[in-house]
């Protein structure tokens, strides 16, 4: 009632008050059972020795995720511009516990039998997790060849043979090039590295049959706005080419989802303080989107 009066008042003052229909943005969804990441990562029997793995890791100066393998072999993150909280080794594990339970629950409690696309897969953390969780087939794409080399190293250590990694620019993907649509598409940590978020979401939708897991930094404004900034490819977590990138606000992401006629989406709630700070401050948001 109060909300309706405020909206009417704002309309009289000439403001355009747009409401995302409650049926589209699902606020109250039951909390799914927790899921733990497969960690430390398993090592395929008779695969590479500790020494060989160490040498192969050392060939790459920069690693976006810290990796830990069975038997105590561990490697830290390493970035060109260190100091941000992306250097925290717990970060991908915290993100996993935040959004993966919602995805797995949406697939009937298991990824078994599913075909999954991991957009901007970096060194393959999410692809390998999905593969180890039983997905039938996982395809990870990233524009940086050195990251796909890293991902293939991870694949050979863990024996996750149901993953294929490809050097591919996001804008080149299509169902035709990647062998058809995917049950699930992961669009994680990527939307704010492109200049055209609406087109990027549209292409993501083209690739997906059932669900999209979207996780992105958002601008804190409450406006329906997209903020532009310049990005240099100065680090393995950044845009692959220099140029303008767009940082949408949370309302603008949801407006784009509405425009693209997704049937429903869940804004995955923050349920613990054990998360990277940008999730706690709502500067980063994850949605599970139903096609
Ligand atoms: C912040 S990282 C995100 C990694 C991972 N998806 C995650 O959320 O943990 C951004 C990734 O996007 C990749 N990338 C940037 N521009 C790209 C493009 N045009 N096509 C494909 N990958 C791109 C980068 O190489 C980097 O691996």
Topology readout:
Blueprint: H1 2-12, E1 25-26, H2 50-58, E2 67-68, E3 74-75, H3 91-106, E4 115-119, H4 125-132, E5 137-142, H5 145-158, E6 163-167, E7 182-188, H6 197-207, E8 208-217, E9 226-231, E10 243-248, H7 250-259, E11 264-267, H8 277-280, E12 284-290
Parallel strand pairs: 1-11, 4-5, 4-7, 5-6, 7-8
Antiparallel strand pairs: 2-3, 8-12, 9-10, 11-12
This protein binds S-adenosylmethionine (SAM).
Explain what the structure shows.
The protein has about 290 residues and is of the alpha/beta class. The protein has 2 domains: about 1-30; about 30-290, 3-Layer(aba) Sandwich (Rossmann fold). Helix content is about 30%, strand content about 20%. It contains 8 helices and 12 strands. It has helices at about 1-10, 50-60, 90-105, 125-130, 145-160, 195-205, 250-260, 275-280; strands at about 25, 65-70, 75, 115-120, 135-140, 165, 180-190, 210-215, 225-230, 245-250, 265, 285-290. The strands form 3 sheets. It has an 8-stranded mixed β-sheet with strand order 1-11-12-8-7-4-5-6. Strands 2-3 form a two-stranded antiparallel ribbon. Helix 5 links the parallel strand 5 (about 135-140) and strand 6. It starts with a helix and ends with a strand. About 35% of the residues are buried. Residues about 10-20 have low confidence and may be disordered. Bound molecules: S-adenosylmethionine. S-adenosylmethionine binds near residues 120, 122, 169 and 240.
